[in-house]
Design goal:
The complex is a heterodimer.
Chain A: E1 5-12, H1 24-38, E2 48-52, H2 65-68, E3 79-82, H3 88-101, E4 107-115, H4 121-124, H5 138-154, H6 160-172, H7 187-191, E5 195-197, E6 200-201, E7 210-219, H8 220-223, E8 231-240, H9 254-267, H10 272-275, E9 278-280, H11 288-295, H12 304-309, H13 326-329, H14 333-349, E10 362-369, E11 374-381
Parallel strand pairs in A: 2-3, 2-4, 9-10
Antiparallel strand pairs in A: 1-7, 1-8, 4-7, 5-6, 8-11, 10-11
Helix pairs in contact in A: 3-14
Chain B: E1 4-11, H1 23-38, E2 47-51, H2 54-57, H3 66-70, E3 78-81, H4 85-97, E4 103-110, H5 117-120, H6 137-150, H7 156-169, H8 184-188, E5 192-194, E6 197-198, E7 208-216, H9 217-223, E8 228-237, H10 251-260, E9 269-271, H11 277-287, E10 294-295, H12 300-303, H13 310-323, E11 329-336, E12 342-349
Parallel strand pairs in B: 2-3, 2-4, 9-10, 9-11
Antiparallel strand pairs in B: 1-7, 1-8, 4-7, 5-6, 8-12, 11-12
The chains are: A alpha/beta, B alpha/beta.
């Protein structure tokens, strides 16, 4: 019943520690204008705008979409603000797509951003609430035990995470928008970087970035008329589960397994490893590449690390993962999910420049958030379903 | 468009201060009551969407705990907006329109008593130019009210009449926070708290939550003799800056009402969530309401104002009037942002 919908425009800012050259409105506007230019549209062509970002305390503005509405061209239009923890960028893309898939709008703009230099993310994530368990660990401290759990279960070699980090940082060197550009990245450099949250080393973690990403999506009727390549949305899916309860498997949450199963069913995919050409996965800490290869059913349970080890996930491997450099190389948190979705769309449109996977026709975009409990994913293709 | 109706609605009492319950504990009985009212179980719900604000809770990701109230196990298809639950309902309605879901559960919640809400709301303003002045929400609304008075759009007596009307209507509500028999002259004898606003011109600050189930025709006709069909659902956002929009009208409400088809026939009941009396007047005008419409039979936002749930509750209160036959056509309104920046209009019909 859903109307076929396509990504026709993508815009991103450069990702960096501090965008001192941009206010918040100009940051989102730059990404939006680039997406409009890519889509060969003007502001007047947009029916509705969707803004996504992670917690408001990251910038210190309550519901900043109200203030930013003008900057993203939302004046006197419908505007929605999405917030689903770290997966929010992906969810923003999914909500935007649904506005067209429902037949309500013909063309929508979505923008996701974070300007983390305005505040302090670890502070914002560590506020102690009355009567609530405070981990006071930040994200790295929260996820390190889950990585340990994965290492024990899978028997993965200790250096798997290092290999992921080297690969993603090498990919980032091909992406001028990526925040971290480490020219002399090497196995030893990552291995010798300080251990932050055992087993996660400094160079196995994501940076804290400023940046924005935007996309224009439109209906089949409009997108079919275009002469350039668009990214057809074959399937979207979301799943959530509670943070903690007795017996919850936080290492391999049921929500990710349910999400991937439902996603592939919708997209008509039975063998994702073969049928997908590449994937852009939310990997804020290196070890989450093998973990989510399994969560996304691309590798068998406890065998995801083999893909990393065998080089399958490298840019020239048989299943490239995080061609853009991934979250490990750029992490404006609220935008990070949408950047993954956008990279999947760039790949199938054949406009990923130096990090293009040759002949990519079908790609997976993935985001997760909270305590490994929110998942949003999509599959895009150069061909209609 | 698929036919979608409101089939279930529950809400907690609006209280100035929930002393013994956190947000999840406020939500749990609301969700349980919704299940009892509709008989809809978790496995029949295809999509869940919620609305809340981290800044009311004073912590990041405050909405995640809401999952514990709905019981997200096995994992659910779920999303969240950092907006009033009325917009969460809109997202859920879109998901039904695209065929992703047939039954959706929506909730909104807020516990503003944990902070100083008028001051917290200053954080919604431009952080570079305005917020450093800490203009509190009541003072900002008072500036708007003064503009309208000076322009002769309404009088202080007109404003007081809205407070008398809504708090009088609220006497029949078991969830309203401020209710009773007030008089216009009595209110006008009160002192200003932010000239020209008196205490009675302001909605109370309320802790609370509400929840709703919407569904396609098969389920709706099974659950309700008179489902409240959503016949128009529109929302529009204006720029925030006060100098670039008309503060003496609600242009966004006018556009949303026009697109929703509100004025095409008589409106029996209207439920409005404007938190100040002068804003009630602006919304009534934008919707084209007159004496033929029973406005705020529940008392509206002036009688109970659970921020982030109050808009969803207006839609629920309007739906109740359709279910019980007292309205064939009802309109509900939600608002967000300073001085009615963003507005949502939902048109419900019994047929």
């Amino acid at each position: 019943m859903a109307e076929l919908t396509a990504v026709v425009g993508i815009g991103q800012t450069k990702y960096q520690s501090k965008h001192l050259d941009h206010s918040m409105p100009s940051l989102v506007r730059v990404a939006a204008e680039k997406a409009l230019a890519d889509a060969d549209c003007t502001w007047a062509d947009i029916d509705a705008v969707i803004l996504g970002k992670a917690p408001d305390m990251f910038e210190g503005v309550m519901m900043p979409e109200l203030w930013l509405n003008d900057a993203i061209g939302g004046a006197y239009k419908p505007m929605l603000r999405v917030h689903t923890a770290g997966s929010v960028g992906g969810s923003t893309g999914i909500v935007a797509a649904s506005m067209v898939q429902s037949g309500i709008h013909e063309r929508v703009l979505c923008v996701a951003f974070e300007k983390q230099s305005e505040s302090n993310a670890t502070w914002a994530l560590s506020i102690s609430m009355p009567f609530s368990l405070a981990s006071v660990a930040g994200a790295g401290g929260y996820f390190a035990p889950l990585v340990r759990g994965y290492m024990r279960r899978s028997g993965a070699p200790e250096d798997t995470g290092i290999r992921v980090a080297v690969k993603d940082r090498q990919n980032a060197l091909k992406n001028p928008l990526a925040h971290l550009q480490l020219e002399d990245i090497s196995f030893d450099m990552v291995a010798n970087s300080p251990m932050l949250w055992d087993p996660i080393r400094y160079l196995e973690t994501c940076p804290s970035s400023d940046g924005a990403c935007a996309m224009v999506m439109e209906s089949e009727a409009l997108a079919s008329k275009r002469s350039n390549k668009v990214a057809w949305i074959h399937a979207t899916e979301m799943r959530s589960e509670p943070t903690q309860f007795s017996g919850r498997d936080q290492v391999m949450p049921q929500a990710t397994l349910d999400n991937s199963k439902a996603l592939y069913k919708k997209a008509g995919i039975t063998n994702p490893r073969k049928e997908l050409d590449c994937a852009e996965i939310y990997v804020p800490f290196s070890w989450f590449e093998p973990m989510w290869m399994e969560g996304m059913r691309i590798a068998p349970i406890n065998e995801g690390w083999k893909m990393t080890y065998e080089g399958a996930t490298a840019l020239d491997g048989d299943f490239p993962v995080n061609m853009s450099g991934g979250v490990l190389s750029s992490n404006p948190i609220g935008a990070s999910g949408l950047i993954r979705f956008a990279e999947a769309a760039r790949q199938v449109r054949g406009i990923a420049d130096a990090h293009q996977v040759d002949g990519a026709k079908k790609a997976l975009g993935h985001a997760y958030g909270g305590g490994s409990q929110y998942f949003s994913t999509w599959i895009v293709s150069s061909e209609k379903p | 468009m698929r036919d979608v109706a409101v089939v279930g609605f529950t809400q907690s009492p609006s209280l100035r201060r929930e002393t013994d319950r956190n947000e999840v504990e406020i939500l749990i009985p609301v969700i349980q009551e919704l299940r009892a009212q509709t008989g809809i179980t978790n496995d029949e719900v295809d999509f869940v969407c919620s609305g809340s604000s981290d800044y009311l809770a004073g912590s990041s990701f405050a909405f995640i705990s809401g999952l514990d109230a709905v019981g997200a196990w096995p994992p659910i298809c779920e999303s969240h907006v950092e907006m009033d639950g009325a917009w969460a309902l809109y997202e859920a309605w879109v998901k039904i329109q695209m065929g992703y879901a047939d039954v959706a559960l929506v909730y909104g919640f807020g516990k503003p008593s944990m902070g100083d809400v008028p001051l917290t709301m200053a954080l919604q303003l431009d952080p570079y130019m305005m917020m450093p002045l800490w203009p509190d929400a009541i003072s900002v609304a008072a500036l708007q009210a003064r503009m309208g008075l000076d322009a002769g759009i309404y009088s202080e007596r007109d404003m007081a009449e809205r407070a008398v009307r809504d708090r009088g209507n609220a006497k029949s509500s078991d969830v309203a926070q401020v209710k009773g028999d007030f008089t216009v002259d009595g209110i006008l004898a009160d002192p200003y708290i932010a000239n020209p606003l008196r205490k009675h011109d302001c909605a109370p600050i309320s802790d609370g939550a509400s929840a709703m189930i919407i569904a396609t025709a098969d389920v709706a006709n099974r659950l309700q003799d008179r489902p409240a069909w959503i016949r128009g659902f529109e929302h529009i956002c204006e720029p925030m800056d006060f100098g670039v929009r008309d503060l003496n009208a609600s242009r966004s409400t006018e556009i949303a009402a026009e697109k929703a088809g509100v004025r095409s026939d008589k409106i029996d009941v209207a439920e409005l969530s404007a938190p100040f009396t002068h804003q009630q007047i602006l919304i009534e005008r934008a919707l084209g309401l007159d004496d033929a419409t029973n406005i705020n039979p529940s008392g509206g936002a002036l009688a109970g104002n659970p921020i982030m749930a109050v808009g969803l509750s207006r839609i629920g209160e309007a739906a109740k009037r359709v279910w019980d036959g007292s309205a064939d056509r009802a309109v509900a309104h939600a608002t967000s942002g300073p001085c009615l920046q963003q507005n949502l209009v939902c048109l419900l019909e019994g047929n």
